[in-house]
Specification:
The complex is a heterodimer.
Chain A (H helix, E strand, L loop, with lengths): L14 E7 L3 E10 L2 E11 L9 H16 L4 E2 L2 E2 L12 E6 L5 E7 L2 H14 L2 E8 L6 H10 L4 E4 L9 H13 L12 E4 L6 H8 L4 E4 L13 H18 L3 H7 L5 E2 H16 L3 E6 L4 E7 L2 E7 L8 H8 L1 H5 L8 H13 L8 H25 L33 E5 L1 H4 L4 H12 L3 E8 L4 H7 L4 H12 E9 L9 E9 L4 E7 L3 E4 L6 E8 L13 E6 L4 E5 L11 H15 L8
Parallel strand pairs in A: 1-6, 6-12, 7-8, 7-9, 9-10, 10-11, 13-16, 16-17, 18-24
Antiparallel strand pairs in A: 1-2, 2-3, 4-5, 13-14, 14-15, 17-18, 19-20, 19-22, 21-24, 22-23
Chain B lengths: L7 E15 L5 E2 L6 E2 L4 E7 L3 E5 H5 L17 E2 L4 E4 L10 E3 L4 E6 L5 E5 L3 E6 L4 E7 L3 E12 L2 E3 L2 E8 L7 E2 L12 E3 L3 E2 L1 H10 L3 E7 L1 H8 L16 E8 L6 H9 L4 E5 L12 E5 L22 E4 L8 E6 L4 E3 L5 E8 L5 E5 L3 E5 L2
Parallel strand pairs in B: 1-28, 15-17, 16-18, 17-19, 19-20
Antiparallel strand pairs in B: 1-13, 2-4, 3-12, 4-11, 5-10, 6-9, 7-8, 9-10, 12-13, 13-22, 14-20, 15-21, 21-22, 23-24, 23-28, 24-26, 25-26, 26-27
The chains are: A alpha/beta, B mainly beta.
Chain lengths: ~600, ~375
Amino acid sequence: MPIQEPGKNTQPFNVIVATDCGSTTTKAILIEKVGNEYRQTYRGEAPTTVEAPFEDVTRGVLNAIAEIEELSGRKILDGDKIITPCHDAKTGVDIYISTSSAGGGLQMMVTGVVQNMTGESAQRAALGAGAIVIDVLASNDGRLPHEKIERIRTIRPDMILMSGGTDGGAVTHVVEMAEYISAAEPRPRFGATYKLPLIYAGNKDAQSQVQKILGEKAALVLADNIRPVLERENLTPARDKIHDLFLEHVMQQAPGYKKLIEMTGAPIMPTPAAVGVIMETIAKREHLSLIGVDIGGATTDVFSVFEGLFNRTVSANLGMSYSISNVLAEAGLANIMRWVPFTLDEQTLRNRIKNKMIRPTTIPQTLDELQIEHAIAREALRLALIHHKSLATALKGIQQERTISDVFEQQQSGKTLIDMLKLDLIVGSGGVLSHAPRRVQSMLMMVDAYEPLAVTRLSVDSIFMMPHLGVLSTINEQAATDVFVRDCMVYLGTCVAPIGQGKEGERCADYAITLQDGRVDKGQLLFGDLRLVPLASDQKASITIQPAKQVNLGAGAGVSVTREVQGGVVGLLLDGRGRPLQLPVDHDARAAMLTKWFKAVGLYPESDV
Amino acid sequence: MAHSYTPGLTVTAQATVRRRRMLSLPGTVLVAAGETVRANQAVARAELPGKVYPLNLANQLGVAPDEIKEYLIKKVGDSVQKDEILAENKPLIKWFKTEILSPVTGVVESVSTITGQVLLREPPRVLELLGYVEGLIVEVIPQQGVVVETHCSLVQGIFGIGGETWGEIVIAVTAQDEVLSPQHFTQAMKGKVVVGGSFISSDGLARAKEVGVAGLVIGGIHDKDLRALLGYDLGVAITGTEQVGFTLILTEGFGTIPMADKTFMLLSAHEGQSASISGATQIRAGVIRPEIIIPKHSTAIHSPAAVPQREGIRIGDQVRIIRDPLFGKIGEVASLPSDLQKIPTESDVRVLEVCFADGSQVMIPRTNIELIEGS
């Protein structure tokens, strides 16, 4: 089937089946044209089968589609083949598309000359293309030359991206890195007999030398310099090459992907790249600053768009099943237990977390298990955002013009782009957020983890279909938009969180909410309060907040603010718990506080809280 | 439901397994198809290129990179001994002479006139790939490895640490719910695969190491003891390369959990026989689980080991509950309601009814059970 240039044309597909081959499960959705609009109608899932003993990703795909067949009554499979195009109203689909992060996703090693300059630019290029960066090597990374070579020998990436130097600058360091890579003779993760894809996107003056050193040892591809001058990044050419090589080389080697590529009617996208497409589209369409998160079993991806700049990071070992034990290791037991309103001895909790790690597809069966899982999710989300903030930065190392007024403000270059006060929307995706039994649970998990400031809207991916829609948008924008608006994006509501701290029970702010029908709900928010005001998805309201003297809502301490807020399936959350959010240190006081908050918003069934 | 299956652990007295033994880089295969091999026999060999040592001669001699060739005593491809002169300058006054000695024994791999760097490579290291299981070579993949087939009893564990090893099976406890204590270990267990019951403590693990057992197969351990054994908190379950003195295989999980009857009976039936075990675990899609392979000493060629076509769970299947509050309990599937049911967390999920030996029955989410596979 001819492949269209992404996003250019809209093909008249009426029935679409899309899969996302995740690290743990393969999720399939069916999209059908109902009347004049596209709707997501059925969903199926099955364990992913990319690794031993199956080593054929298509088996999991067929299993997931078989579930859709069962539920929908539509015949989609003919043995191991997907019936395309539609034969009649109940047979076949018009196109099959897929994303993939299975088998560890796209694992890359990147190199630069200066770690926090070209090294970081290369890292951002790889992350933006949907890769997991397993190491960043740089001339100044503190490792001795032989240690660098040893490292390149031992890790087996799917691809290497080399950067370094500005165009016209010195070539020595980047050539030296090429020599190290050549000496290490790196081998790819899959397939013993093919050459490792390597993209060189550094100083263009070194291209011929790099070609000479690495041309024979790797499948070398040249791209424009990602940092042609210090003051500017040029990541797109390298990202495009990563996508091309991912399909041409890496996917061809992964178990079963040759078959999968033949089955799909459009290029397979790495899952994070597809989610990134969706996040960028939302931000651009609605002119928003946003943070998106996809918390999976193995990894947590964070996306952000601030000042029009898109960034993505992946926290490779923060996840809710495969990597759950690592969340405990990184966050520490105390940080997890601070979100749980009951006691559990360390040994029991540790054993439970390890048991989830070794049997990753299990689900919480009791309320206390659910609360523990939500506590772990809060910490995974929090840690992943810290990681994201450290990489989503302005360019480092560039000259800054300073005026006399800057003398006392020694601001470094490379400041994070994430400004929680400018944040308009948080979008959550991934199993623990999309499948939380109550939507308010997803909302509070994100509020607790991210601590949004002032006024922030929150939403969640209804049943985890953003990857599917990301790849769909490259072949049929209309279908992707229809499904995204009607079936995917669930607006949870808006969180209003004054900045500042005070004693529990002290006045935090006075508020007046004017609803569309003219009714006014006035009240006082005290420190330590968490209040939920019903405001349906299709409703807007105007909220005027008069903060206490030391409290700020973005306009300055004590300055009144009026904002239009949007409703959602949860409503308007008035968060008087203070920012930064601080929980009581004493266990009993903390448990009582958590219980009060949980009850106030109806977080869990009443009798068990 | 033709495609659906429920992953589970295999515990079976009769199996034909094939193990692909592949070199990590091209080399020489040492055996031929049809040959019988032992677990500790080398089946293939490769030469791992030696370590590389970069040496910036330009810096050390204080000359420009494009001049270094003039100072080199050794050329590309030459062998060099440790402390042999690699390069030297030729000053007018002898006192100012600088000699650069080779830091390693190896060969001069490359000389760069752009960076002024010389790369020295140590001699290659020979890597031998062992058979791992006693069996028959059924396939040779030239330069890469072989496929060994064995007719055996097979037990899959849920989690393990440590690599491939082998040894005689010793049953150290009298029942599957008995705790394996330090007192159970004797010097006679050195080099053997010791099977315990429901649990082993950190003291027991220390004793196992002291005795020098080859492997330990047990129902469960505490996570804190695993952390103490490894010396770090295991974040992601990719294991198999740990070196703690023995290979450890958990059959049930973390905590004190009696070993499944079927597993304990099968291992007990093979006491005194030799087993090949591996702790390698990779918990991800597809999943690599630790294994205990007990070959049957038959050299007949069996039909290729077919991956059993897994089907959905059926009434009467033996299952293990793998999530609290009934974690580790084993029962039989009594019914498979097709409708979604609300569980205490308020999630609507597919469930099944499990009947225990005492006749009691509970509803469990289908994702929270594991089929005990194998006949």
